[in-house]
Amino acid sequence: MPLTTLKAYPSKILLLGEYTVTRGAPALAIPFFGKSGHWKKEDKPCSRLPELIRFFKENGFEDILNVKAFEKDVLEGWVFYSDIPSGYGLGSSGALIAAVYEKYALSVDYNPENLRLLFSSMENYYHGKSSGIDPLVSFLREAVYMENIDKISKVNLPPFMDVQIFLLDSFQSRNTEFWVEHFRKKIADSTEFSNAVDLLARINQIAIESLLEGDNLLFWENIKKISQLQFNYFTEFIPEGHHDLWKDSLQNNDMVFKLCGAGGGGYTLGFTKNMSVNYHKILAYNPVWVE
Predict the structure, then answer these.
(1) What is the pLDDT of residues 7-20, one digit of tens each?
(2) Calpha distance 195→204 (Å, rounded)
(3) pTM assigned to the model
(4) I want to staple 158 with a disulfide (CB 3.0 to 4.6 A). Which of 168, 197, 214, 270 is the partner?
């Protein structure tokens, strides 16, 4: 199966629902084409892809994927070139899994719920236990609404009107598994924290619904609430270099921040209604614009 086209597989941003999604609450993820990957031919084979191929062979994926064709292409020098940073929560391995599936699936399934289950099993090679959401968003190249982990649908996002979204780089990678385990321990040890997470889940749901309905005022009000709750209860999850800017934003009404996925490093997600006023504040943080 020759690889002849340069097709981008975008990274993903969990726009709303980090951590609360693990407790069955809704979440919304979007593709981000500012960071992506694509197939590329090099002079020598990739040293890492053969391990993924071995995983597919040993775990029964030859009924789903043309693993022999994948192996042949890799030996001929085809690699997955990506500028998605690892350990940043943007789904670097998810983009690769999406690319492998689209090129080598024996029969392509476009049902989001079926795909999530399949992608989960494929991406387990990288994460031990994957949700499958990252490759799903990269493969579909559309926003995905998770009413719960078993009820997933593609959605069209209306224009943000007066809200722009951007990413702040903490310049440090993070270990998602560490922060997820830390979250679980806090839930188990603190009733106050558990109650705050339940409240966060309800506010997240309102924010998602208002966004999908195009109610920018209600969306902004709830993003502010999410930002305040996360600053109060997820302080250690916020990259250290972003604390002051986050705290300052809570005193105003034209810029807010929230975790981008697990937190602890990687990116912080920002929202602003007035970029011309706030640009000088965030310039030093190397913003990456979400189109």
Answers:
(1) 899 999 999 999 99
(2) 14
(3) 0.86
(4) 214
